[in-house]
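Much of our argument rests on the idea that a fold can be written as discrete symbols. In the encoding step, the backbone of a single protein was reduced to a row of integers, each denoting a local shape. This step matters because it turns folding into a mapping between discrete strings. For completeness, the protein is quoted in full, as a sequence line and a line of structure tokens:
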Amino acid sequence: MRIEITLPSLGDDDDAVTGGTITEWYAAPGPLAEGDDLIELTTDKAAFVLPAPCSGALVEHRVQVGDKVKVGDVICVIDVEQGA
């Protein structure tokens, strides 16, 4: 089963990050374990490294370095039936 991974909300209510720019992909297509570094997102205030939310195989990047993304945008697809 393939799952579309979306950009999660980062931070608390008033300080929540609503989006940013993808500055680096740490994961290439292939096996991926839950918690592996996935992407680096940079905002005007900070940089965040987002971990993979589940294990499986990264099958598709939906955004590229330099793309601006918002919370809820699909950033990649993971096939959870393929072992990490």
Summary: The chain has no helices and eight strands. The mean pLDDT is 91.
